[in-house]
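User: Please predict structures.

Assistant: First:
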Amino acid sequence: MSKPAYKRVLLKLSGEALMGDDPYGINRGTIERMVADVAEVASLGVELAIVIGGGNIFRGVAPGAQGMDRATADYMGMLATVMNALALGDAMRHVGIVARVMSAIAIEQVVEPYVRPKALQYLEEGKVVIFAAGTGNPFFTTDTAAALRGSEISAEIVLKATKVDGVYTADPKKDPNATRFDSITFDEAIAKHLQVMDATAFALCRDQKLPIKVFSIIKPGALKRIIMGEDEGTLVHV
C-alpha cells in the first residue's frame, strides 16, 4: 500500500456542509458520512486538525440578526462553530476516533481553550483536533481561522472542503462551459479574481507558502484520494 502524501493537514469544513439538504442545522446522515471519511484518513496515521464554520446554525437566526452590531453577530457565529465542533467531536467518539475540541474563546465548562503546544501534543498523539470559535475575534472568517491554525500547527496543506469539486473559471452552476483548474498559483487566482478564500485568509496562506486544496466534501472518497496524493480538486500553490 502506498504511503500518504501528507503527514499533517488542516481540514476546513463549512458549517453549510453539515446541513446536507436541510435548510439549516445539522443533518445526521451528512455528519456521519464526513466522520467516516475522517476515520479513513486517521487510520492511515495522518495527523488531522479541523476548523469548522457555523453558517448552518447562524442561518437559522440570521433574519433576527439583521441590523445587529457586526461584532455581536460575529460572536454569535463563533458560538455556532462551538456547537458544530461539539457535534462533530461526539460523532467521532461514536466511531472510536479520539477527538479534542479547542475553542478560541474561553468557555472552559464546555470545551478546553485553544493552547498551541497542547494542540500540537494532541496531534502527535494521533488525536483529531477540532478548532472552534474561529480566531476568537470578530471581523475574521473561519477561512482566516483555518489559514491561521494551519500555519500555527505547521500543516503541510489546507484542505478546503466545499460543495464544488475544485476551483473553476466561472460558477459551474451558472456557466456550463466553466472548466476546473487542476492547479493554479496564488497570483494567478488573484489576477483572475477567483474566490478561493476571503482575502485575509488567502494572503496569509500565500505569505506562509501554505498550499490550499479545494475539493468536494460530498464526493465519496475525495478526502482520502487527496491524502494519498491522487488527482482530486484544485491545488492552489505559490
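Second:
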Amino acid sequence: MCGLVGVVTSNDVGVCLYDTLTVLQHRGQDAAGIMTSDDGKLNLRKDNGLVKDVFRTRHMRRLTGQMGLGHVRYPTAGSSSPALAQPFYVNSPYGLALAHNGNLTNIAELSRDLFNEDLRHINTDSDSEVLLNVLAHELQRQGKIRPTHDDLFSALTRVYERCRGGFAAIVMITGYGILGFRDKHGIRPLVFGSRETERGKEYMIASESVALDSQGFHLERDVAPGEAIYIDVENNLYSKICTKPGEHMPCIFEHVYFARPDSLMDSISVYKARLRMGEKLGEKLQSLRPNHDIDVVIPIPDTSRTSALELANRLGIKFREGFVKNRYIGRTFIMPGQSMRKKSVRQKLNAIELEFKGKNVLLVDDSIVRGTTCKQIIQMARDAGAKKVYFASAAPAIRYPNVYGIDMPAASELIAAGKTDNEVEELIGADWLIYQDLDDLIATASEGNPDITRYECSVFNGEYITGDVDEIYLKRLENARNDAAKKSKKKGGQTRRKNLVEDLNTEV
C-alpha cells in the first residue's frame, strides 16, 4: 500500500507536496519521494525512510516549480532498496514521472513484451516501473510532439488493454500536466479536489481525501473505475473513462486498516464504517454469549479504537485504554521477518497494569494477519494480571494472499490459513476468539454507499476479481515475496544499493 499526490499550483509546489505526504504517511513508511517540474527542469529527492527524515531544508530548497508529484511507499513488489523509492522517471517521450499504488498481476508478461517487442529496458523488479514504461511506449507510438488530453486518454486506453491488477497512479508529463488514473474495478483508491486562489482554481489528485483537506482543497469526487483525470499546466481539468469499467469493487481492507478514519473513500466515511464494525461485532458477541463475563473492552491502538469504542457501547461495558503506544515504531505486519516483528511489538506497546489486574478483558484489534502481534499482546495482558483474555477481530479471518497491493503474499505466513477459528484461538493463546462475519463487514461499508454492493475481499474469501489468479500464480508469488525471499533480496542487493543510492538525489 502506498500514498500518492500530484498537484499543479501557482506557488512553489515542494512544500505543498511535503505537507501532503506527512498526512499520507500512514500509507507507507518505507520510503518517500518528491519530483517537481520548474519550467521544464526536473528536481528529484527520494530515499528510504519517513517523510520527515528523507526531506531536509537543503532538499526542499531544490524542489522548486509549480507542478509535481509525491509518493510514500511500503514494498509489496520488489525489494526495499532506495532505488525502488518513487517517483520513477523516463525521459522519452516528453519526460514522464510516475507514482503508483497497487500491483500488476501480469507483470511477467508485460516485462517480457517491453523487452522483446517495445525495446524498453527495465532497471528494477518493480511493477511500478513496468507500468510507467508501458504508458511511455503507448505515448511514443502516437508520435505527437505536443500531446493533447485526448492523446493521453487514447494512450491510456491501450495501457488498460495491456495491464491487469489493482492500481492507482499519478503521472507528471514534463511541461504539460498531471495525469491520474485508476484500475477498472476501482480496487485502489484515488480522489481529486479543487481550491479557489487569487489566480483561479487549482486541482490536486491524491490517494485519500485527507490529503486534500490538509491543503485547503475541496473534495470533488473519487476517480471512477477506469477513469483518467488530467490537469494541464494552466489548471484546466479534463476527464474520460478510458476503458470499459468492470464492477466497482473497492478494497474492503482500506476501511478495516489502511485508510485514515477522517477520510472519505468512494463516498463512504471510514470512521462511520469502523463504528458499524464495532456495532456488528458487538451484536455477534451478544448473540453468541449473552451471559459473558467481560469486565472491560480495551483496543489495540490505533486503528481498532473506533470499533472497540462502539462495541463497548453496544455491550454496555467499560471502555478503557490499556496500552500505551510508542508512535515511532512502524506497522508490524508489514515488517519482514518474524523475529523483527516480535521485537517491535514489545517496543511498540506497553500495558497499563491497573486496567488489567484481576479483570476479564476483551481486546479488540482491526484484524489478525500473521498472529505475531496479537499473541504477544495477549501474553502482555496476562503478565499485567488479567484473569481471562478474550480477543475480538473487527475483520474476518485472513486466510488468503493479497495480489492487489497489500503485503500479504504468502498463505503460509497467515496464521488463519487452513485453520479453524478454534485452532487460531489456541495458537494466539486467547481464552476466546471472535471474528467479524464477512457479510457484516461488507454491510458496514455498503451502508455508507448503497451503490457499491461488492468489495474486493480476496484475503477473506480467496476470490480474485481480475480473473487471472490461480494456484500457480499464487505459488510463484509466495516464492518471490515471502519473508525468506525478502531477506535474500536485501542481502544480495547491498552492494548494488550502495552504488545506486548516490544517484537518486540529484536533479534529473
